[in-house]
Amino acid sequence: MAIWFIHEGREYIEAPRWADIGIVIVVLGFLANVFFTAIKGKRTGIITVLIADLIALAGLYLAGMGFTDNISMDQYWWWWIIHLWVEATWEVFVASLAAFGLIRIIGASRHVVEMWLWIEVAMLFGSGILGLGHHYFWIGTPEYWWEIGALFSALKPLPLVAMFVHVTYDWGKQQGIAKAEGKGSSVTNVPALTWFFTNAFGNFLGAGVWGFFHTLPQVNIYTHGTQFTSAHGHLAFYGAYATILIGMFYIAIQKANKIKILKATFDFKMGIVLLTFGMLGMTIALTIAGYGQVLVERAQMGATWEAYFISQNTLWFVQGLGWRFVMGIMMVVGFVYLVKDLLIIAKIPIHERYTSSEIEIGVEMGHKLPSLAR
Ligand code: HEM
Ligand code: HEM
Ligand SMILES: [Fe+2]
Predict the structure, then answer these.
(1) Could you give the number of structural domains in the chain?
(2) What mean pLDDT is predicted for residues 343-363?
(3) How far is the CA of 207 from the centre of ligand 3 (A)?
(4) Whose CA is nearest to atom 4 of ligand 1?
């Protein structure tokens, strides 16, 4: 009864069964929408990757819909969704959005962008699928997962570095071209590009660096399930996913309002700075709290029940969480600026609009955007 109507009791995917079925229907609807749009238009590399990825993403969700009362087996399948979503299918989704965005925002060449995309997809799936092993160290799965998990998950930062290099390289290259042509800049959407750049860096830092910190079993035996995990989880989610979606919102606003060049507003700057530095501060605070926990609860006191409570009262832990609260407030203020900016940015008269003759030949419809023509 509870599973059907209230919740499934599993972290992140606690949706009750009726909502599960709803989620599957919505994802399939989304997939169908992308698919039928794609077969009507140009079948580009980006759209092909996106469709294949969405099929995998929807399919994986089914792994979490079965029920077993054996906790090891339940966790085994649960990680298929949690890990294979965030470290394989969602990352590929992000790579597709970034590829699309770079063509849109800075007029990067589709040829170059798609070449990068294929490399990134191969690396993401290559390291992400067996990287699943870094969650199979302590849940009752066979010990060979130690080696498999350590090796493949340690490779995971590579595609994230590649994605960062890709964005930076394309941006630098397009700026160079624009300069040589005597134009000031190639950027048609400053807020979106800034968010995309934050994404490339945040993904590398939160998932790549903070993930790598605790991915080897020799380290993870101490850090498993501490505030350290929470530090990584927060920076990775924000860096890899929140940022790119906000960037996409700005692209949508630009298109919906037929703006040629979307410029940075004060609210946009406040939003991105407060949110990003709030999140970085929160991550550092949680890392310090986690470090105290690892030292006292795990290393010194051997992970007993009593040790858990003693470590929760140590100075580093208490002060770390105090700072986390302060940084959380900073993020909330940043969030208010962001929402305000998203609502009003299109109406602020600093952007470059299309001339009436450009509108006449249909440039603003997106087919012949100056940045796309190159
Ligand atoms: C954007 C990508 C990523 C996101 C959103 C993400 C998010 C998370 C979250 C939320 C958890 C906590 C799960 C739980 O509740 O137990 C977690 C755990 C973990 N992540 Fe990631 N992660 C990402 C990428 C990575 C990468 C690339 C690595 C390794 C290089 C990594 C290594 C780990 C490890 C080892 C754990 C287990 C921590 C523990 O034992 O407590 N993650 N991740
Ligand atoms: C004002 C900012 C935020 C505050 C105060 C906050 C607070 C919290 C708290 C108290 C927890 C429970 C930690 C625990 O069980 O020990 C948590 C978990 C989590 N939060 Fe946040 N959060 C914030 C922003 C975010 C953002 C922006 C994201 C994603 C983009 C996020 C994703 C998560 C995830 C994935 C977990 C589970 C992590 C784990 O189990 O290790 N949070 N958060
Ligand atoms: Fe993982």
Answers:
(1) 1
(2) 87
(3) 9
(4) 236
